[in-house]
Known about the structure:
The structure holds two protein chains of two kinds.
Chain A: E1 7-13, E2 16-23, E3 36-41, H1 45-64, E4 69-72, H2 89-107, E5 111-117, H3 119-131, E6 136-140, H4 146-162, E7 178-180, E8 183-185, H5 187-195, E9 208-213, H6 219-226, E10 231-236, H7 254-267
Helix pairs in contact in A: 2-3, 4-5
Chain B: E1 8-15, E2 21-28, E3 40-45, H1 58-67, E4 72-76, H2 93-112, E5 116-122, H3 124-133, E6 139-145, H4 156-173, H5 179-186, H6 192-214, H7 219-238, E7 241-247, H8 251-260, E8 272-277, H9 287-304
Parallel strand pairs in B: 3-4, 3-5, 5-6, 6-7, 7-8
Antiparallel strand pairs in B: 1-2, 2-4
Amino acid sequence: xxxxxxxxxxxxxxxxxxxxxxxxxxxxPKSAARKTAVxxxxxxxxxxxxxxxAYRRLATQLSGLGYPVLRFDLxxxxxxxxxxxxxxxxxWVEDVAAALKELQRRSGLSSIxxxxxxxxxxxxxxAAVEHGGLRGLVLWEPVLSGALFIEDLRSAHxxxxxxxxxxxxxxxxxxxxxxxxxxxxxxxxxAEFKEMGLGQLEGSPAEDVLLLDQGTDYSALAGGLExxxxxxTHKSVAGPRIWEEDPSAGLIPQEALxxxxxxxxxxxx
Amino acid sequence: xxxGDNALKEQAVTFGAAAPLVGILTSPxxxxxxxxxxxxxxxxxxxxxxxxxxxxxxYVKLARFLARDGFHVLRFDFSGIGDSGRRRDTLPFEKSSNxxxxxxxxxxxxxxxxxxxxxxxxxxxxxxxFCAAGQDPRVVGVVCINAPGFSHIIPDSVVAxxxxxxxxxxxLQVALSNPxxxxxxxxxxxxxxxxxxxxxxxxxxxxxxxxxxxxTAAPDSVAATHGMQTQLENFKQRGVRSLLLFSxxxxxxxxxxxxxxxxxxxxxxxxxxxxxxxxxxxxxxxRQNQRELMNRIRTWCxxxx
Lengths: 269, 305
């Protein structure tokens, strides 16, 4: 069999199985012995599918620099167990903590940097504040408001329906809850999202934080983070907002990936 | 490994000689299965560049849905897609994909003992399924969902013909009902000539097509049709059955009609079944469409087994 670049596996979070890919530290010319391992938290639903290629590339490049890397699918997302309507925000935050432990076990390192995009970033920040002790955190275009997130999804859904060549019979909620862009959002989950926000972080999420934006105004969040003990780096980069792009285009947000790699290598050598 | 259902187990697998290929094998749990288990393994092939979970996670749902009926189902990534590595050789995709489908069957055979297989794919995955089914005698059935064609080479004349039909459909079904389109017309920010051509084609194209189908087809179209018919003859001789599923208005359905013309009605002679799903987009985004698609596939698979 061809040489393995990564190890796909399932691990437990609570009673359920999550899918993960472990990238062992590379042994190439750019590789160095690192004291920190990196956890990549995938976003959810359509954003999970659209970001997969970029995440895979980022994990490969970081492992090439010598970092052990684990990326994983949240509960009921991607290849992980169960169907999406069973998820909850509390559950997804707990998944981040479970994946962190799994990475510590596999890598043998206690120092961890978490990288998350969109809801992956939001859940990572929440888990970081709740559990503490995180070395680094990358918030890549985090979702600030659950209510706005759902509103944007609904808008994208309506836009998508207008492009159908054969009009759908119904776009109203079905027995399993509201269908937004092909994923179910039952009333219980919608209520949870309505209450969710990243503006109220009650403490320092990590020693160092990179807040990476691609056009969204994060001045309020940056101000909040600066008021904690966190050392904050705020960068704006151009390039495709990959979570909004058609995945069949195969776009890679090179500038964002480069910014993350550089920051991780400089901050956690 | 679990997947929210005691009747199933899921396992991450890797295989492949030229590239490390990654997949998830979904299997029924023997102790809870009822009745006679189907002795056919199912492979789900990448829809374009989307990784193995499929559009809107369709492949995950379909794998678990079929496994509840006793099927072993493998969803995996071709080399260079999703979590699979890149090949070290320079084999073009139309050849490497056939080879990797065979490797996936080898792996499933080792894991499950199965000797007969069914290929399912959406969009480019449908095209690969159709082509790979002709290469490996272990394949007994193929489900093509919105296949963009049935040959890796699509003749320019067919592309032009299908593009005209699609443009007409777009203007009639999408643009005319969109206020933004009317605003563009009022502001004169549109190509009036293109719209005129498309609407002319929508109105009179059917008449022209019926006339042209009675005359001699373009040579490259004949070649493509010959390729598909050769493959269907091959399927008929080997007893391979196929389900050709399309969303109403899909590019691939127009392509099939352009390629086969009136011969579409003779597909059943080759063990091929044509079904059209109304109110669905190309990738079956809405859950109501996914449910209908999965039910149709399930019924057909159970009939095959």
